[in-house]
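Q: Here's a chain of 429 amino acids. Please give me its 3D structure as tokens.
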Amino acid sequence: MIKEALFLKEFYQKILDGIVTGVLVTDKDDIITYVNNGMEVISGLKAAKLLGHNAISDFPESTTKYFKQYYLKAREILKPVNYDSIVVVTTGKRESCQSGVLIPLIKGDKYDGMICTVEDVTEKKLAREALREEDKKIHAITESAHDAIIMMDNEGNISYCNKAALKVFGYNEEEVLGKDVHTLLAPKRYHKAAAAGVKEFSKSGWGPIIGKTRELAAIKKDGTEFPIELSFSAVNLKGRWNAIGILRDITKRKLVEDKMKSAFQNQLALDSILQISLKDIPLEEQLDLSLVVLFSLPWLNMESKGAIFLVEDDDETLVLKAQRGLSEERIKECDKVPFGKCLCGKVAQSGEVQFTGKVPDEQIIICDELSKYGHYNVPIISDGVVAGVINLYLDESHKYNEAEVVFLEAVANTLAGLIKRRQIEDDKE
């Protein structure tokens, strides 16, 4: 039995000396009766300088200041007490952070000593603090970023969004966190494909837009759809795939692009009309081809219906010279239009561009067909005199657009040059 007991003591001694955690044991008078190798390393003292000393009174206050209060608490309540990251200055003047457990020994319901485990967590604490600082930096960066940043979890729900994202979409944080990102922020036409994409992404971290930048549409809280530039990247957190989306509202950029595209198309259209004017074909055919050019412009949002009238021998009458999309009845009724009559006649009389939405019936003089549409009526002015009128049909809901008017006036001026050139050639003949 004695040999077995000695064997077990030696066995456990080897185990205790082999672990990194420090172990210290005191008796009922708080005198240190045992320390392992780990305790020697943590304290910076050899066992000989620890054994026989009172654990809470024989060492400098800088060493026992915080440890002592936990020790006394465990001794008082006779229950284990945990302590975490307390500051201890060792006798070697090294400041460290220590964590551990104080386990009272009880004999006959009375305190009989303490088992103290000690772990030096200085590096862990420094790592945690560094991580917290890094988190603060990342948070500060994302919150101050002008681009919207949204994080999607493994199930397609919003787990984070920065202030810029909230501002762009018009929500507060409580309204978006935990909500399905696509249901909340994407147009319905994207929902089916997005649901399938999230299902695949949650398994593999792959998706058709992961690692790419795309121009898509998004929906604000008020239902407004707007263009965005979106890039998605995947990140694996605790074995689950998450996505981080960075997006920006590109409404202004798209407007600029559209204006530049429209300006380019407008110039091409005017150049085309100029080229038409140089063709050796009848004037009526030149005007007809000019209408074709107008109706081919994608940005000029109008019906493919319209006409060009010219003033001929009678200075007070418009004569229909070219048309597209008009009914036979309309062509017959509008063959000649007196100045001051109907929409075209009024423009010929005033010499000013006229925009109308759906035309009230009482304003229709010649044809009921006009009342179904909106219209741009643009005078063709040559040498200060009205030489004709361009009449274009619009959807009844069409809104006045200054850019459209400026372009149509340029077309009218180009046609005025075309007409004058033909008149000069006719006079020579």
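Q: Can you summarize the key feature?
A: Confidence is low (pLDDT under 50) at residues 5-9, 359-366.
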